C-alpha cells in the first residue's frame, strides 16, 4: 500500500434514486440471499426529488468500519450490510490515485477500514423505498471506490442482498427484477426494460400520508405472508402484460395492471395471519377518488399503487392530467396552514399548471365534476402531510464535486 503518509483519505460520493414497484415483490424463497418468489417491475423516480446520497471513504488511519445514516451513527454489524461489504470486497481491484500518491492493491482491501455516510432526502422506513435507494447507493459507491469490474446488473445482485428492491435502483426508467432459478442467486438480478426518456409523458404524484416508521416491517411482513397467506400463491402473473404495456406506452393497460397488482398485494397482507394493515383510511379515500374519476372519464387517467405503507403513488398519463389530479387532491386534502411551498414539493411547476399559486387558489377550487350535485363532498384537511411531484428518472451517478461529499476529505468524519 503506497502513500505519502498514513493520513490520506480516498473518497467516492454517489447518488442513487428510489423506485416504486408497479408489479410488487412480496415473499422470499431464500431469506439470507433475498431471493424472491416472483419477478417484479418498477419505475425509477427522478433523483432530484427522491434519492440517497452516499459517501464512502477509505484510509489506513481508520480503526474500524463505521456508518452514519442521516447524521446519526448506526451499527454496521447487521447481516445485510456485511453481505454487501463482503461481496464487494471480494471483487475489489487495484486502485491508484496518482494525484494523491495513493496505490491500493487488491490484497490491501481486506485490511483497510471504511467510513460510510448516507443521507435520504425523504422519510426513512415509511414505505417510500428508502432501503432500496440506500443499499443501491451503498453498493454502487463501494463498487466505484474499490474499482470492481461488474456491470450494473451484476452489481444489482449484490445490492439485492441488502434490500431486495435495491437491485431495481441500479437503473433508471423501467426496471425488471428477474427472480432467477439458481440456488446461489447468481441469476436473480435487475435489467432495464426502457430508459426514463421512453415514456416521459408520465407524471408521478406521491401523497405522503404518513412519514412515521411502519408497524410491520416489509421483511417480517413478507415472512408472515409466505407462511400463512393462501392468496399469495394465487397472485396473478402480470409480468409479460406489464412489459408489453410499457413497451407500447399503453396507459390503459399499464393503469389496470398497476392498480390490480397493488390491490391484490394488500389483499395478501390482509390474508396474512395476523393481518397486516399497511394502508389506512386516507389511503382508501385516495383510491376511491381516483376510481370515481377514472370511471367518469370512461378511461384511466391515473394509476395508483401503494407499497408497504399508507403513502399513495399516483401515476398520471401526462402533465395535463397531473394538473387536474393536483386540483382534486388539494380540493379533498387542503393544507392545514397557508404554506403551500412545503405542502407541494419536488416539481412545483405541476401546481402552477393547475393554476395553484397560493392558498387562495386552493380555497377557490370547485368540486370535481364527477361528484354528484346532491352529495356534499367532505374535505380531509390534515390527512396528507405533503405531496411530492416527480417523474421517471435516471439511474445512479457519481458526484465529482467534493462539496457534495458527506464526509470530510481530511479526516473521513461526517461534515
Automatic annotation (TrEMBL):
Mvd1 C-terminal domain span? 204-398
Q: Does the keyword Cytoplasm apply?
A: no
* EC number assigned by the record: 4.1.1.33
Q: What class of enzyme is it?
A: lyase
Q: Name one GO molecular function term.
A: diphosphomevalonate decarboxylase activity
Keywords tagged on the record = ATP-binding, Lipid biosynthesis, Lipid metabolism, Lyase, Nucleotide-binding, Steroid biosynthesis, Steroid metabolism, Sterol biosynthesis, Sterol metabolism
Question: Per its UniProt record, what InterPro entries does this chain match?
Answer: GHMP_kinase_C_sf, Mev_decarb, Mev_diP_decarb, MVD-like_N, Mvd1_C, Ribosomal_Su5_D2-typ_SF, Ribsml_uS5_D2-typ_fold_subgr
Domain Diphosphomevalonate decarboxylase-like N-terminal, chain residue ranges per copy: 17-190
Catalytic activity line of the entry: (R)-5-diphosphomevalonate + ATP = isopentenyl diphosphate + ADP + phosphate + CO2
| Family affiliation | Belongs to the diphosphomevalonate decarboxylase family.
Q: Describe the task this protein carries out.
A: Performs the first committed step in the biosynthesis of isoprene-containing compounds such as sterols and terpenoids.
The name on file for this protein is Diphosphomevalonate decarboxylase
Q: Its encoding gene is what?
A: MVD2_2
Amino acid at each position: 500500500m503506497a502513500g505519502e503518509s498514513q493520513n490520506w483519505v480516498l473518497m467516492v460520493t454517489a447518488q442513487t434514486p428510489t423506485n416504486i414497484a408497479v408489479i410488487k415483490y412480496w415473499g422470499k424463497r431464500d431469506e439470507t440471499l433475498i431471493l424472491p418468489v416472483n419477478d417484479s417491475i418498477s419505475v425509477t423516480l427522478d433523483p432530484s426529488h427522491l434519492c440517497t446520497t452516499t459517501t464512502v471513504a477509505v484510509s489506513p488511519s481508520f480503526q474500524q468500519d463505521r456508518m452514519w445514516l442521516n447524521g446519526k451513527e448506526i451499527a454496521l454489524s447487521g447481516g445485510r450490510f456485511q453481505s454487501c461489504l463482503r461481496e464487494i470486497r471480494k471483487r475489489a481491484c487495484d486502485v491508484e490515485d496518482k494525484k494523491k500518491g495513493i496505490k491500493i492493491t487488491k490484497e490491501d482491501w481486506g485490511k483497510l477500514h471504511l467510513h460510510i455516510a448516507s443521507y435520504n432526502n425523504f422519510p426513512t422506513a415509511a414505505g417510500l423505498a428508502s432501503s432500496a435507494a440506500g443499499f443501491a447507493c451503498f453498493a454502487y459507491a463501494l463498487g466505484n471506490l474499490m474499482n470492481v469490474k461488474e456491470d450494473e446488473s451484476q452489481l444489482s445482485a449484490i445490492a439485492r442482498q441488502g434490500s431486495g428492491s435495491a437491485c431495481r435502483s441500479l437503473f433508471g426508467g423501467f426496471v425488471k427484477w428477474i427472480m432467477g432459478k439458481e440456488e446461489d442467486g447468481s441469476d436473480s438480478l435487475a435489467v432495464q426494460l426502457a430508459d426514463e426518456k421512453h415514456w416521459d409523458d408520465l407524471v408521478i404524484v406521491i401523497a405522503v400520508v404518513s412519514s412515521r416508521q411502519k408497524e410491520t416491517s416489509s421483511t417480517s411482513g413478507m415472512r408472515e405472508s409466505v407462511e400463512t397467506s393462501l392468496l399469495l400463491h394465487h397472485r396473478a402473473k402480470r409480468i409479460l402484460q406489464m412489459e408489453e404495456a410499457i413497451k407500447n406506452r399503453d396507459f390503459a393497460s399499464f393503469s389496470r395492471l398497476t392498480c390490480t397488482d397493488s390491490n391484490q398485494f394488500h389483499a395478501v397482507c390482509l390474508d396474512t395471519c395476523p393481518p397486516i394493515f399497511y394502508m389506512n383510511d386516507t389511503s382508501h379515500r385516495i383510491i376511491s377518488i381516483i376510481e370515481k374519476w377514472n370511471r367518469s372519464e370512461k378511461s384511466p387517467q391515473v394509476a395508483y399503487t401503494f407499497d408497504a405503507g399508507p403513502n399513495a403513488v399516483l401515476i398520471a398519463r401526462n402533465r395535463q392530467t397531473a394538473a387536474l389530479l393536483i386540483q382534486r387532491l388539494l380540493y379533498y386534502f387542503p393544507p392545514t396552514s397557508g404554506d403551500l411551498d412545503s405542502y407541494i414539493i419536488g416539481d412545483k411547476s405541476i401546481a402552477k399548471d393547475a393554476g395553484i399559486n397560493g392558498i387562495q387558489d386552493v380555497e377557490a377550487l370547485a368540486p370535481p365534476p364527477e361528484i354528484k350535485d346532491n352529495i356534499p363532498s367532505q374535505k380531509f384537511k390534515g390527512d396528507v402531510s405533503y405531496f411530492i411531484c416527480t417523474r421517471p428518472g435516471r439511474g445512479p451517478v457519481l458526484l465529482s464535486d467534493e462539496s457534495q461529499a458527506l464526509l470530510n476529505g481530511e479526516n473521513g468524519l461526517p461534515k
